């Protein structure tokens, strides 16, 4: 259950106010029932307390009730939370109190802490360039010998690095014939011609 520090105008009298500390949302509902809708103001949510609904009803009846014979009775609590198994207000949002009745520092709501989302694992072919800044990419390009003349944008720098790396990974001599036989340059035929029977110099 959320708790807060508040100011209470006794009987709704703005000139007769008292501070109340660590009051629950359920208790603020009782105070507004007794003293008026605008009697509780400068509400500053501060934390929370562990308490069951039955325990809270019993506590509020004890604090804001009166003794009738052997019983402690609180008309305000009974009207707001009728029955032994009644549910009390747990958060201040449930009360739908106007924002101008909250403290000037701002409405502070104790929200549950959301678990941090883990970053997705990088893909197997992720070279990490996309996550780098422009200066880091420029330094990397300089270290690898990539020419960035006229290239200033991040995407263009990344493309230049990747193209350079792809070129570096291509095996040398890849333009030769796959069967290992070189092109005939005609020199052999010329030698045969000059070594034949019609060679004038023979």
Automatic annotation (TrEMBL):
<feature type="compositionally biased region" description="Acidic residues">
    <location>
        <begin position="175"/>
        <end position="195"/>
    </location>
</feature>
<feature type="domain" description="Rho termination factor-like N-terminal">
    <location>
        <begin position="128"/>
        <end position="170"/>
    </location>
</feature>
<feature type="region of interest" description="Disordered">
    <location>
        <begin position="169"/>
        <end position="202"/>
    </location>
</feature>
<dbReference type="GO" id="GO:0006353">
    <property type="term" value="P:DNA-templated transcription termination"/>
</dbReference>
<protein>
    <recommendedName>
        <fullName>Rho termination factor-like N-terminal domain-containing protein</fullName>
    </recommendedName>
</protein>
<dbReference type="InterPro" id="IPR011112">
    <property type="entry name" value="Rho-like_N"/>
</dbReference>
